[in-house]
From TrEMBL:
A GO CC term assigned to this protein in UniProt: primosome complex
UniProt xrefs under InterPro entries: AAA+_ATPase, DNAC/IstB-like, IstB_ATP-bd, P-loop_NTPase
UniProt domain AAA+ ATPase: residue ranges: 99-229
Catalytically driven reaction(s): ATP + H2O = ADP + phosphate + H(+)
Gene Ontology process terms (BP): DNA replication, synthesis of primer
Identification of the protein by name: Replicative helicase loader DnaC
Species whose genome carries this gene: Mangrovibacter plantisponsor
GO molecular function: ATP binding; DNA binding; helicase activity; hydrolase activity
Keywords: ATP-binding, DNA replication, DNA-binding, Helicase, Hydrolase, Nucleotide-binding, Primosome
Length: 247
């Protein structure tokens, strides 16, 4: 078997142009290469299954329609704050691999918090990561749905699913009326994600003190793990200029 593989490899090698380095040169390297390919394929499949499950549960994929084409390149910079927010978001995406740092984008409506969060997620998707941007309201209605008769999933499984996405961005923190259940669920998600070294993004109109008050010190402390990113979006809303046809 090894001899056959060696013969085949030496025949193949004769046809490889000079200067091209093959992925494997010995039967052992070939075997390792095949194992690695298999591992990558099964990871891709698991990711795809998870994305489909998310789509079924939340009735949509990781990024909402309006933000599906948001990128770093189509974020307009007209003030220093925007330039800094853009640079920091871009750096966050570049340094995502193996990083446990979470981020909080806080500030006025329409300033591009979702835009830059979607740009981060779109960049990560290109690198095969799983992402989900979801509002607190959507999380809560999915959670409440698990209590109804014949529900496909359980509260525990839903929390587990939300904890496994490579980057989960929770939007509209502080929009809902404050409820104890909501606080407990966010606490559990952030806790589980941080203990499995997965970062969480948060988008909010609240300031840091209000976030501390709403979510509690436990959650906010976990959000500060590692080299976490906090950006304040304090310029004017861009919404009146959106036509829906720009990208
Ligand atoms: N600097 C910008 N360049 C280009 N488009 C922008 C910029 N800022 C915001 N937008 C666009 O304006 C719209 C509103 O922005 P976005 O949804 O990111 O706001 P937000 O800060 O998340 O607001 P809210 O707090 O109300 O959820 C989006 O369509 C977004 O793509």
């Amino acid at each position: 078997m090894v001899k056959k593989a060696t013969d085949l490899l030496s025949r193949v090698r004769r046809h490889i142009p000079d200067g091209i380095r093959p992925a494997f040169t010995t039967p052992e390297e070939w075997h390792q290469w095949q194992l690695e390919q298999g591992r990558q394929r099964s990871q891709a499949l698991a990711r795809e299954n998870q994305a489909m499950k998310m789509q079924r549960t939340f009735k949509r994929s990781g990024i909402r329609e309006l933000h599906i084409n948001c990128s770093f390149d189509n974020y307009l910079v007209e003030c220093e704050g925007q330039a800094l927010a853009l640079a920091r978001a871009r750096k966050y995406a570049d340094e995502f691999e193996g990083n446990i740092a979470s981020f909080v984008f806080s500030g006025k409506p329409g300033t591009g918090k979702n835009h830059l969060a979607a740009a981060i997620c779109n960049a990560l998707l290109l690198h095969g990561k799983s992402v989900l941007i979801i509002t607190v309201a959507d999380i809560m209605s999915a959670m409440k749905g698990t209590f109804s008769e014949g529900a496909e999933t359980t509260e525990e499984r839903l929390i587990e699913d939300l904890s496994r996405v490579d980057l989960l961005v929770i939007d509209e923190i502080g929009v809902q009326t404050e409820s104890r259940y909501e606080k407990v669920i966010i606490n559990q998600i952030v806790d589980r994600r941080s203990s499995s070294k997965r970062p969480t993004g948060m988008l909010t109109n609240l300031n840091i003190n209000e976030m501390n008050q709403l979510l509690g010190e436990r959650v906010m402390d976990r959000m500060r793990l590692g080299n976490s990113l906090w950006v304040i979006f304090n310029w004017d809303s861009h919404r009146s200029r959106v036509t829906g046809k720009e990208y």
